[in-house]
Amino acid sequence: MSEVKLIKTIKEIPREELFAPGHRLCAGCGIPILVRMVLKAIPGPKVVVTATGCLEVATTIFPYTSWKVPWVHSAFENAAATASGIEAAMKVIERKRGGKKAKVIAFGGDGGTFDIGLQALSGALERGHDMIYICYDNEAYMNTGIQRSSATPTGASTTTSPAGKVIPGKLERKKDLIGIAIAHGVEYAATLNPAYPVDMYNKIVKAASVEGPTVLHYYTPCPTGWYFDTSRTIEISRLAVQTRLWPLYEYDHGVYRINIVVKKPKPLEEYLKTQGRFRHLLRPENKWVLEKLKESIEEQWNRLVKLAQMSGQKIY
Amino acid sequence: MARWSSWKELPIGNILPTPGSSAEYKTGGWRALKPILHKEKCIKCLLCWAQCPEPAIDRLDDDSVKINYDYCKGCGICAAVCPVKAIEMVMEE
Amino acid sequence: MKVETETRGIRTGMTGNAAVAYAVKQADVDVIAAYPITPQTVMVEKLAEYVNNGELNAAFVPVESEHSALSTCVGASLAGARVFTATASQGLALMYEILWIAAGLRTTIVMGIGNRALSPNINIHCSHDDAYAARDTGWIEFFAENVQEAYDLTLQAFKVSEDKRVLFPSMVNLDGFILTHSLEALNVLRDEEVREFLPPKEPVNPIDPDNPMTYGPLDLQDYYIEHRRQQAEHFRMSYPRIVEILNEYSEFTGRRYSPIKTYMLDDAEIGIMVLGSSAGTVRYTVSKLREKGVKAGVISLTLYRPFPVDEVREHIKGLKVLAIMDRSYSFGSPGAQLFMDVATSLYNVKERPLLFNVIYGLGGRDLTPDQVELVVNKALEVAREGEVRETQIWVGVRE
């Protein structure tokens, strides 16, 4: 891992904007907050690949494009494979006849990463391409109208896992993307959250400095799909961390570190009541689903604490 | 707005050789609420600048900020995150 | 012992797979991303060997599926690399979605196909289902008749695809097992001769951080049809350029390449159209029948897409009957794929032969001279009766 320049304050975030406004992402969307940060945090020339999804569709409606870096979209499930090709080509061309190198960044939504894109991601990670894969997770297939994905949290209501009279929302657990990445032997993987911009920036810098594949998992609320007022995006993001639903942690060359240790978690209900997609969970007849969600959050947190403690972090 | 009116003029291969051209599409017309910055309260923490999705908040040389009403969709994130409540959301005319 | 012959190159013996791999090596490809599938495996294995032995300076990307193989190739081609991949049958079917994208984004990928039947049932032997399935996608398609052609067409494919007046990906089809695994004699060019014919790729609009572009944006109703129209026109206009390059190669090597090959067609009354390795069997049978006084001739296609409409119209003049042989099947269609292409091309021509379709060789069923003779006899019958009672017949099937 080469020299990294971490920051302590927002002021140190570079000024240059490589992402232009005028895109059609919803008001209050958390995705562009990530994109702006990524393009600022990663130094030098960059190439971005994006899977089909909200980000791709809303930022590149011909003839308008928000991207001021080379940007490639081929299909839905192959962001990691397309990025692999670009990375391999640039390496070879530089070796054979001198050419421009650039850091390859792949963006995929939770659908394009956890589900249909998982195979391509797995292949790219196994082959060790030098690229940073960032999943922006709004916890459903939002671009096609809010259908559930394997990243949808237990209990959430989506159009294909509606809170119905017999089955009250999605009952399955959320997949562990960082765990999957670590199982492939990546050197660095971390979770990101827009309510913690300095933490977010530093993790992107660290990931990008690795020569090899790294995976970042970004939490983004979706006002349209989660049903909340557009101004609450950051508030909800912070609550996600403070209820331990979205642990902010990193895996850095074998060392697990929880970046925000939530000693006294806020009650989960405080998070759930901010969003329409969870409203049904607060009804007494659905308590059993709420309990399932709470159990999985506790299990995930305890596991991470153990891993961090084994890595030498002093918690409690 | 048709930048290219004939198929003969289109750039080859479906590509777009116009980086950042989304800036020609002013999304300011989307908003119902509008943020007003009370400059005297601003402490230049730059949280609103960092967390504006568009971005519709310009960071000036002295680290003060200026709202770009051409693109502001009126989401209200800036007003919500400002630690000193220097931004107020008002109804758009 | 290396022997020089009348056409350019050194005489040697190779299987189809090895010949294609050798051509790819000589073309100094930059990126190879492929997934194994019978009968293409040896093509890719040989390339891996070349790379790992330092004989070919390229990135060999061992992808985890054919879909990823072509996606990786798309990325690599857009980044300015000379790219090769290979597949067959189910693999090509899996790549299907990306075929359109590779063509629409004007990549210059060259793909070797070991033509193999589509499941069910799973069959690893030759049919042309896979090549035909790609016929709408905007890829240039060549068909090799023997190992020499497989080698030559691979080299030509790179030049064709990368030509700035073409810029479309191309497929080189060779019959699974019949050509991919058969050892035949051929002339291979020397490395410096290949370099002379095929200079390095000069990419058009490659990914360049200093000149950032957006590749593969979204089109709404206001631009999609114009984009397609442009691609359609460019694909149509690539035809004369392809012929130009085939002619250039013919000059360079002394081996004649053109979209269509004819055999004993000048005074023929009966024509048989075929593509792939079976052309040889058909010509052999026709030559024997000529000795008995049957006026038959053969048309074989080297270029399938863009379809050589004008040349087909030109060459059928004087024929009373044309039998069109398809090593594939299209369920529910008025005929199999090549038949439909030819029938459509000839419909508006005032004087044209009667047409009928012959389905043969599926799943590696051998086409024998007996079967060809049956086809010729059927054609003679149609010529006598002046009408086509059975538009489609199957040969070589246990009825």
Number of domains of chain A: 1
Named CATH topology of chain A: Rossmann fold
Secondary-structure content class of chain B: alpha+beta
Number of helices of chain A: 11
Q: Give the helix proportion of chain A (percent range).
A: 25-40%
Which residues of chain A sit in consecutive blocks of at least 5 with pLDDT less than 50?
A: none
List the uncertain runs of chain B: none
Number of helices of chain B: 2
Task: Write down the overall mean pLDDT of chain A.
Answer: 96
Strand count, sense and closure of the main sheet of chain B?
2 strands, antiparallel
Number of strands of chain A: 8
Overall geometry of chain A comes to globular
Query: Quick one: CATH superfamily of chain A?
Result: Thiamin diphosphate (ThDP)-binding fold, Pyr/PP domains
Work out the largest interface and the residue count of each chain.
A-C, 47 and 46 residues
Written overview of the protein:
The complex is a heterotrimer of chains A (316), B (93) and C (399). By secondary structure, chain A is of the alpha/beta class. Chain A has helices at residues 31-41, 54-59, 79-97, 110-115, 118-127, 177-183, 197-209, 223-226, 233-242, 268-272, 287-310; strands spanning 46-50, 71-72, 103-109, 131-137, 188-192, 214-219, 249-252, 255-258. Chain A has an 8-stranded mixed β-sheet, with helices on both faces. In chain A, strand 5 (188-192), helix 7 (197-209) and strand 6 (214-219) form a beta-alpha-beta unit. Chain A starts with 30 loop residues before the first helix and ends in a 6-residue tail after the last helix. The mean pLDDT of chain A is 96. The radius of gyration of chain B is 17 Å and the shape is elongated. The relative contact order of chain C is 0.12. Chain C has 12 helices and 17 strands. The chains are: A alpha/beta (316), B alpha+beta (93), C alpha/beta (399). Chain B binds chain C through residues 2, 4, 6-8, 10, 12-19, and chain C through 104-106, 167, 204-205, 211-217, 219, 222-223, 226-227, 229-230, 233-234. Strand 2 (71-72) of chain A pairs parallel with strand 10 of chain C, so a sheet runs across the interface.
